[in-house]
Amino acid sequence: MLERYGHGGDLRTASEVFGRSTESFDDFSSNMNPLGPPPSIRNVLAGYLEHIHAYPDPASRALKKTLADRHGIPENAILVGNGAAESIDLAVRAIKPGVTALAMPCFDEYGDAVRKLGGEIYPIPLDAAKEFELGEAEIDAAIERSGADLYMLGSPNNPTGRLVDSGLIYRLLDSGAHVVLDEAFLDFVPDEGKVTLVQAAARHERFIVIRSMTKFYSVPGIRLGYAVGKPSTISRLRKLQVPWSVNSLAQQIGEAALMDAEFEARSRQWLVTERQWLTDELRRLDMQVTPSEANYLLLRLPESSRLSASQLQLEMGRRGVLIRDASRFQGLDHRYIRVAIKLREQNERLLRALSECLVAAEDGSGDSA
Ligand SMILES: Cc1ncc(COP(=O)(O)O)c(C=O)c1O
């Protein structure tokens, strides 16, 4: 109901549906870092008026240099884009896959980008009984049966929060397929520098890694992300990109954000503690919580509850709390929701509203029963 345009975080739609102002919601339906944006970007905003008259650097050179130094890869292995969303689209257009294998459930944009080009999707079902972990058995079966020339995987995956083992990626590359790995949420992982596969992507012919800067730095409004691949691959993507796709404010904000080491450390520390706390509290409400490496949790409603995810979304929205109806992800049934992890006070409001809705449904006293 709230995913009219296919995503969470649509406050305008929520405002229309619930008749409340956009500012009045606690939004757990989009996964932004609640500690952000980093204070380092304030100066950029204050001084930006001076730069607005000029075109942005068409190659985002300063930001690319900062990213290259950070990841230990050459600058020409990076393409800065208008959000990770643009890189997903460009990668698929450059590869032109016949069949694309997707581990389901996953971020909708992978399938949308493929379908837009008339490509076919081969679903690799992730097993709820294995807490949605992608394993060798699923990968080997897909290599044998799918005929896929592209595998698109999220690590951490959205909506499950699970990481993909690097061994599986190399197995796929060895099979001769292309791999696009979406690391949009990897900044939240404490040893991100060891887990990321950007260096491998910078060397490998058929491997692209996609990163987002909007989630960790909490700047989705400016649209900023990047793709990493072999320079020859990146040059193919660049040829498909609209000129000046990344505006100068986004470029400057990106650079300032990457300099803020204190924000980075604080965010990672906060998440480890808060995720455990929220997981424990949700389990106390009999929610089934999928173990997550990201800043969001995939939940299944208690067996005893009569509510569906869409009914719960409606009841929560009426209470000013927005959650994602995850039953809309292919591979999940009508009892899954996804919630972002936010600051303690907001998380407490989420828990209170969830508890009220579950009790009301049990009593038959709420509209939801
Ligand atoms: C897994 C995943 N990848 C990519 C994106 C797109 O990110 P961006 O805002 O950088 O375009 C999203 C946005 O929700 C996402 O969930």
Describe this structure in words.
- The structure is a single chain.
- This protein is an alpha/beta fold.
- It is built from 14 helices and 13 strands.
- β3 (99-104), α5 (108-116) and β4 (120-125) form a beta-alpha-beta unit.
- The longest helix has 24 residues, at 261-284.
- The mean pLDDT is 95.
- The chain binds pyridoxal-5'-phosphate.
- Pyridoxal-5'-phosphate (PLP) is lined by residues 83-85, 107, 154, 158, 182, 184, 212, 214, 220, 225.
Low-confidence stretches: none
Helix content: 40-55%
Count of alpha and pi helical runs: 14
First and last CA, distance = 18 Å
The run of helices and strands is: HEHHEHEHEHEHEHHEEHHHEEHEEEH
- Gyration radius from CA atoms, angstroms: 21 Å
What CATH first level of the largest domain would be assigned? Alpha Beta
The amount of beta strand, in percent, is 5-15%
Widest β-sheet, arrangement of strands:
2-8-7-6-5-3-4
Number of domains: 2
CATH homologous superfamily of the largest domain, by name?
Type I PLP-dependent aspartate aminotransferase-like (Major domain)
Brief summary:
By secondary structure, this protein is an alpha/beta fold.
Notable characteristics:
single chain; 369 residues; alpha/beta; Aspartate Aminotransferase, domain 2; seven-stranded mixed β-sheet; four-stranded antiparallel β-sheet
Task: Give me the secondary-structure topology.
Blueprint: H1 11-18, E1 26-27, H2 42-47, H3 61-71, E2 78-81, H4 83-95, E3 99-104, H5 108-116, E4 120-125, H6 136-145, E5 150-154, H7 166-174, E6 178-182, H8 192-195, H9 198-203, E7 207-212, E8 225-228, H10 231-240, H11 248-258, H12 261-284, E9 288-289, E10 296-300, H13 309-318, E11 321-322, E12 324-325, E13 336-340, H14 344-363
Parallel strand pairs: 1-11, 3-4, 3-5, 5-6, 6-7
Antiparallel strand pairs: 2-8, 7-8, 9-10, 10-13, 12-13
